[in-house]
Amino acid sequence: MLGNKAELIEEVRARFAHVGTDPFTGERIFFENAGGALTLKSVVETSATYAAIPDNQGRDNPTSAHLVAVIAKAKADAACFLNARGGQVIVGESGTELLFRLARAACNAWRGKGGKVISSTMEHPASRSAAALGAEAAGLEHVVVLHDDASGTVGPEAYATAMTPDVRVATIVHASPVTGMGMDVAAIAAAIRAVSPECTIIVDGIQHAAHGHVDVAAAGVDGYVVSPYKMFSRHGFGLAWLSDRLAACPHDTLQGGGSWEMGTRDTGAYAAFSDVIDYFTWLGEALGETGDQRARIEAAARAIHAHEWDLTEAMLRGTGNQKGLTELPGVTVLGGADNPAREGLVSLVVEGQSAEELVSALRERGIRTHARKADHYSGNVLTPLGYDGCLRVSMCHYNTEGEVAAFLAAMAEITGA
């Protein structure tokens, strides 16, 4: 059920490619959305259309003018989705690449002046490494605050404890791709600014963006980065919003230029991102919202978050005659079963079975999941807990309670319940 409209979930699923079948193996349940969500059919069509157009932007012909208009619309759509006021939207190679560019520029603004950069152990290396390398290159000290192992989160109190007035740059992860927990970005940003009002704050929104509300104006941050392939678009580009203050920092650009985007942009990437925002807008309308584009996006975000919460609760507590994960022998859920920060993702370990074994056993039963290892991607979360790996089961709003029931039946078999 989505927004108390039982029939709407089928309309939603119909808009996505390969929602119930794999192009190579046939029927399967897709619970690997944190690794890359399903793609909108409209994105597939749009990508093909723009890949075939030979014209570039900035030429004296109608096709070129159309390309310019498409990019302008996509930037406006992205700004609306993010609730960005001022600043600019850019695309780059990937979300990770953009986090590095933003962090490097923010740190370079303080080269030779001293100060600190603050991050947390909750972060994906996309932002944590970007902050560390940016700080090193600019001669700044990198301070890393510890997250809470039990809840799989980091809060404003942890940042506040480590804050000093000379913190120049801060990075925050909006949601963890390992624990699946969301962070209170606005509260963390407020704690940072209470001590260092002019700190440049950059948010890694890559895991969060597909699952809920984004409001950079309310959060009071300077940069927000997403990976569109994790929010129903395609691979091959990342998207970021920069505040005017961050955009003014010294950055890689052509001599005599100043643009953050170097080279000719892929119009198809921009158009495909507009498809995503058009989808959110449609979903808000389908839920009964009659306000402007932002109001419809917010309605969609609320319904998505609520639906995914119901799915994770069913997975944890059980549904129908299926026992939940909390009732299965040997199962431990990362972050605990009673965690209000969870966003459509459950990571777990099963006593006596490796994460890789679990992924294979589920694959044999037609369910796609993923194993996270205690490596440079996830070791910051798993190693303190004493785990070599975990099974990540990640959902999106197009998943159903019936799919959760099938997963629980498979897990009951695997654990011998």
Automatic annotation (TrEMBL):
Keywords: Lyase, Pyridoxal phosphate. Signal peptide: none annotated. SUPFAM superfamilies: PLP-dependent transferases. InterPro entries: Aminotrans_V_dom (IPR000192), PyrdxlP-dep_Trfase (IPR015424), PyrdxlP-dep_Trfase_major (IPR015421), PyrdxlP-dep_Trfase_small (IPR015422). The keyword Iron does not apply. GO terms for molecular function: lyase activity. Coiled coil: none annotated. Pfam families: Aminotran_5 (PF00266). Residues 29-407 form the Aminotransferase class V domain. The keyword Lyase applies. This is Selenocysteine lyase/Cysteine desulfurase.
